[in-house]
Design a protein that fits this description.
alpha/beta, Carbamate kinase, four-stranded mixed β-sheet, binds adenosine-5'-diphosphate, binds phosphoric acid mono(formamide)ester
Length: 298
Amino acid sequence: MRVVVALGGNALLRRGERADASVQLHHVEAAARALAPLAADHELVVCHGNGPQIGLLALESSADPALTRPYPLDTLGAETQGMIGYWLARSLRNAGVRKPVLAVLTQTVVDAADPAFASPTKFIGPVYEREHAERLAERNGWTMAADGPHWRRVVPSPEPVRLVEQESIEHLVGSGTVVVCAGGGGAPVVDDGKLEGVEAVVDKDLTAAELAIALKADRLLLLTDVSAVMSDFGLPSAEPLDHLDVGEIDQLEFPAGSMGPKVEACRRFVLATGSEAAIGALPDAARVLEGSAGTAVR
Ligand SMILES: Nc1ncnc2c1ncn2[C@@H]1O[C@H](COP(=O)(O)OP(=O)(O)O)[C@@H](O)[C@H]1O
Ligand SMILES: NC(=O)OP(=O)(O)O
C-alpha cells in the first residue's frame, strides 16, 4: 500500500512542555519507532506539523535586537522543515528503517486572494495566560485567540493549492524511498509567474490530503495526541468514535485550528479517492492503519 502519514506538531511538543531540542527529539524518536513497521511494509510518505516550533522561532526572531524586522513565516516554516525533517530522517534510520529516507524541503502554492489571510485561525507557539498574551499582541502586532483555557498566537492558514515539489516526491516514493515532506504544510508561496513567500502557516493535514490525493495513496493517516475523534469533546459525555462516514461529517462541528482541519482533510481524501482515512494517536500508528484503533473515516 501507499500510505501518507501526517504527524502533529503538538504531538512532537506537547502544550506547556519545555521546548528543549532533547524533549522534542525524544518524541520524534518515539514517532519513528511507531512508523518504522509501516515503512517496512508499505510505501511511506511522512508529513509533519510545525505549529509549536514555528511559533518559538517567531518569538526568538521578534526578540532579536540585531534584526530590523523579524524573519517572515515562510522562511521560518522552511527552518522547521529542516529541523524536524532532519530529526525524523535520522530517527527513522535509527529505528531500523532499511530503505533510503529523504527529507524534502517543500513549498506549497497558496492563493494570494485566499480569505484566510484576513482571519487568522492557525495556532502557533506556546500557550499563555491572558495578560501575557495581550502584552505580546500589543508589542508584536500579533493576533491571539483562546486555545482551551489558555491563549495562543494565531496566523493566517490559506488553503494548499499545489506542492511545487510534488513530481519529485512521487518519483522518490515510487522508487522505494521513505519521503519526509510537506513539513508544516509546506513553506507557503504565491505564484504570480514568480514564487514569493507569504506570511502564513498552511495546515499540514490539508496539505497531506492534497498530496495523498495527488500520489493516489491507499491510506491517509493523521496521527496526533488524542486516541480518536470524540463526540461531545470536552464534556463529561465525550466518547471516542470508531468511525465517521463522510456523509455525516457536515452535521458535526469540529474546532478550526485543531480537529476541524483533520476531519476536513479526511473528508477530501475519501471523496477524491474512495479510500479510507483515519485519525488516531501517534503511538498507535500500526493499529490505526489496520483499523483496530483511532477513528476511520470512510
Ligand atoms: N472532537 C474532538 N475529538 C478529539 N480531539 C479534539 C476534538 N476537538 C478538538 N480536539 C483537539 O484537537 C487536538 C488535536 O489537534 P491539534 O492540536 O491541531 O493536533 P496536532 O498538532 O497533533 O495536529 C487534540 O489535542 C484535542 O485537544
Ligand atoms: N502546520 C501545521 O499544521 O502544524 P501543526 O500540526 O503543528 O498545527
